[in-house]
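Protocol step 4 of 5: obtain the predicted structure for the target chain.
Materials: sequence only (see below). No template structures provided, no constraints applied. The aim of this step is simply to have a reference model before the mutagenesis design in step 5. Sequence pasted as it appears in the construct record:
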Amino acid sequence: MMRKSIIIFVLAIFPLALWADLISFTAPATLRKSDNTETTVLLKYETDTWYEPAGEVYLLGPDDGQDLSGTLIIPSTVTYSATTYTVRKKVEEAFKERTDLQGVVIPSTVTIIGYYTFYRNFDIKVVASIIIPIYV
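Step 4 output (structure tokens):
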């Protein structure tokens, strides 16, 4: 009976140990307006030290409630808590239904673009080209 209780306890705690390695944060990006002025917006990022290679993050999308009318310039690196991370991928639905977004400049460091990243973005006119390695 004691052994069964220990196994159940370990199985219950193990997922929490994985979750503890998750780091979420926001970092600035540039938004170029149609009149060529630039402003700063915040994008949400996440890294999981259990699964992701050291120093890499994935882009979750814009921080809630921001106007993205213009061309979003996604940085190739972001800094959080004195650590610089390379932006490697965008997760599913990162910019889903953002009809205010008119364009996106994707850095060459991004090697994965998730499903439905730009789903129902009717106003996007230009998305920078990206070369994705064959092994991705």
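Step 4 remarks: The CA atoms of residues 11 and 89 lie 30 Å apart. Strands lie at 22-32, 38-48, 56-62, 70-73, 77-80, 83-90, 101-105, 112-113, 126-127.
Proceed to step 5.
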